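Reading a protein record of the kind used here takes only a little practice. These numbers are not coordinates but entries in a learned vocabulary of local backbone shapes. Here is one such record, which you should read through line by line.
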Amino acid sequence: MKSKKVLSLLLACAVTVSMGTTVFASTEDQIAAAQAQKQEAQAGLEQAQANISGLESKKQELESYLTELNSQYNELTDSISELSIEAAEKEEELKNVKAQLEAAKQNAQDQYEAMKIRIQYMYEHGGSTMLEMLLSSDNLSDFMNQASNVATISTYDREMLKKYEETQNAIKAQETQVKEESASIGNLLTEKSSKQQEVQNLVASTSDNINSYVSQISASQEEADALMAQVNNADSSISQLMEQAEQEKAAAEAAAAQEEAEETSDDNSDDNSDVSEETEEPDYSEETNDVSDDNAEDSETTEDNDYTEDTSSGSEASEDTDSSSDTSSSDSSSSSQGTYLGNFKLTGYCNCAQCCGTAGNATASGVMPTAGHTVAMAGVPFGTKLLINGTVYTVEDLGTPYGHVDIYCSSHSEALSFGLQYADVYQLN
């Protein structure tokens, strides 16, 4: 009867533990899946950030190139403006040279016509003129002077004609030079204008490429933001699943403890039942044995005395056992490391908006948190010293129930890396 009852209790306990383990394992699988999703999103985020960095670099290169093109365009614009002024000046100079040339041609033509008239006159009246000059002269010297004047006039006409021809030739040469210079300026102006158009086209295409990179960067940034949201959601899911796993573990442990307590209670009941049966056996044996009246009385007296001694001895043993138990309990709750509080759950947090809602806030006790020093846990006063894994922490913040210690970390990545741990916790004050 007793063995069947114990066996049934053991089976019930095993089923309960198995169910708790199965549920806990399912949550652990969900945590593993969430961590895998986070890693995948993190990898995608890193790739997106690398793409953004590459696109930003190319965009900056194009922006530098665009700056150079704009500078070239401005230089060409200034050069074209200067060449346009020079071309206008050459046009004006060429116009003046042409006017001078026309005037020289006209003077030469007028001189030539006058000379032709004098030559014709001298040719037609050459003989009578010389005779008239001779007869009209007072003397030979006067005649020679008049003849010399006629020769001088002829020489002057020839010299002036020659001068006008030289002037005309010089003006023509100047005209040719001005035309050549004007043509050179025109060619430079055409070349500069063509270069300016080329630079303008490069500016337009470079601007289009920059706009394209801006669009790509914007799209990659949106992708990165979405992946960051996935990472944050995964972190939140992992935290919730860790909390759920802890609750499931605690529930399973509580169920197992309850089953063990019930089993212990049933065992004690069975033991008491056995003891009662064994106690009744001596009376039954005395009733069934026939002996003489005197011997029976002596035997009964002796047996009673023996039973009393045994009972007393059992009571003393019981007292010794209770005393030992009390001593053992006292030793387990206190040690050289301080007062043992239990095996607590440990997590990490930082002073960021994701962990605390807002970033950079002071703790609930009014002090700024410090890594390796500050922890959060309810149920104990601020300033309580806790010994955890060889490190002394101070309770300076709230946010977690008693039995759950949230350890402050210097960064969010360290808090995530800390994960979920369990450790023995001792109170030092």
